[in-house]
Please model this.
Amino acid sequence: MKRTHHCGQLRLEHVDEEVTLCGWVNSYRDHGNLVFIDLRDRSGLIQVVFDPEYNLESHRLARSLRCEWVIACRGKVRPRGQGLENPKLATGQIEVIVEQLDLLNTAKTPPFETDSADQVNEEIRLSYRYIDLRRKSMQNRLKVRHQVTKITRDYFDEQGFWEIETPMLGKSTPEGARDFLVPSRLYKGNFYALPQSPQLFKQILMVSGCERYFQIVRCFRDEDPRADRQAEFTQIDVEMSFVDADDVMTVNERLIARIFKKILGVEVPLPVPRMTYAQAMDEYGIDRPDLRFDMKLKDLSDLVKDSSFKVFTSVVEKGGVVKGFCAPGGGRYSRSDIEKTMTEFVADFGARGLAWFKVGAAEGGGGLELKSSIAKFFTPSQQQQILSRFNAAEDDLILMVADQVETANKALAPLRVRLGKELGLVREGDYRFIWVIDFPLFEWNEGDKRFDSLHHPFTSPVPEDLEKLDTDPGHIRSQAYDLVVNGSEIGGGSVRIHNPLTQAKVFDLLKITRQQARDRFGFFLKALEYGAPPHGGIAFGLDRLVMLLTGTDNIRDVIAFPKTQRGQCLLTDAPSEVDASQLEELNLRVQKHLHQLEQEP
RNA sequence: GGGGCCGUAGCUCAAUUGGUUAGAGCAUCGGACUGUCGAUCCGAAGGUUGAGGGUUCGAGCCCCUUCGGCCUCGCCA
Model:
């Protein structure tokens, strides 16, 4: 029997047609004489009916069917009787009365019920991923992921980009994340590294005259995973020649707008607005601000430095800041919420404390005042200034961290997001895009007494700051840009250095010696000397993009076969030990840890 | 490397201060049933409480070790 239709397609217009369907038994309801099966394929569910008066043999076979068995059936589409429609199914107006049933395969009882798998332990879902992926929600995520890559390929093709593959087996460099290493059989003792990104190859493709490159490419970073991070992930990687930062942002924001339009029907207003890194850090404490709600951070240092609250004054004297934000309606939080839950929360990010004021009606009537165990350290005038800086209203909650500005930001930014969500300031289906620009080129690494690249060492300074390479490297702005939506960085890139002299100066500041630079990037620096065009690009995290589009905060949900937080694949049991002969061939010996040796007889 | 939460039947969860034979719903198996759609009804089976050790007259519960999962800090140019 050849399939003629998909289960989820059938509608009233197909009534009286003879159809053949294939799929899995989603559920069965056996009434002794009448048997109902909800048949499932990728397209959806449909009810098929077995009636002994219609076909005795099929009915007998149908009674033995079980969940997840695979069948094909041929029958006639008919409308359901009056009052028998099922509004829960897209196909609920009709059903198929089956003439012929073929059992294509049986199935063991699944380890979990597919209908309720959302509540099932993820460990079991990952071990039986093929069953987990049968679920509609998971199939939708795979489908959206496919749609995103399809839209991306179509879009870049229209724009004159070529998709070019770059090597998976590359050269290890000690910068950046830890590499995954692959031993070479032919060069014993030598290793390839899996790419952390195709950065240098795509720049070399610009030197090669390809002009417009993109690639949907797997990248590997051997660092500890997070809910939104996996050692193996996918980038939409882009590079363009003869462009400035504006050109790259324009081309790429149009791609993202098209993806959101086609998949969610969401109109992304173009051009996407821009915000400097300095403003983002100042007002949101983070370089990826969530703009779905206001609740901006304010610096109160100037107002509180003259208070009698020693904690604040001493921090300001030491060059720190008192920064905070005002949570509208936050008065409903209890003292224990603030002094325990929230304080522990910010402590995780290095803050030593969390100060707070509740905003209440002033005693004696008229106006507002601050209510808190520390309110007494602030004069009425100081209190009023604080209230007016936040434009605070009754029942608001003001939360503050006093520390070095980096620490204060680091603690306040996640607290702001957490409260924004808890207080219901985030509207479902709201997407706020922003380009964050004018990043610093370097940040000072006090431990190693040198500069580190904020983006990567090939990022170009903005032209007017070029001279500061010699005079004031700490204040150079880079031509880097991150695309941020709802507090999540979905992509980032830069205009690159195409001048070998500038590149050499940057390496100097990073304390990468000429010798080291030659060893690690010699092939690339050499390429720059052979007519490198001005170029720039960007890379988007495909996984995070699909997470946004499908409304999950778990990266494993958008990867067909993901790994656990310890980097294990529970389906295949990778990684695993290998045969001694394989090691032999690679000239490798595994050194066991002492505790393992002790356990052996 | 650090911190937190979790692990009891196939799945989701209960189990009083440490106290009888570790329960329930769903799933499974058997039976009944002609319009169900999370079918219903009757019945049955199902457990090394992640593993190992300890304390105790007695441990799912307390202690130690260990394995695994998730979240997180560090890390992720």
In short: The longest strand of chain A covers residues 18-30. The mean pLDDT of chain A is 93. The first helix of chain A runs from residue 56 to 62. Chain A has 18 helices and 22 strands.
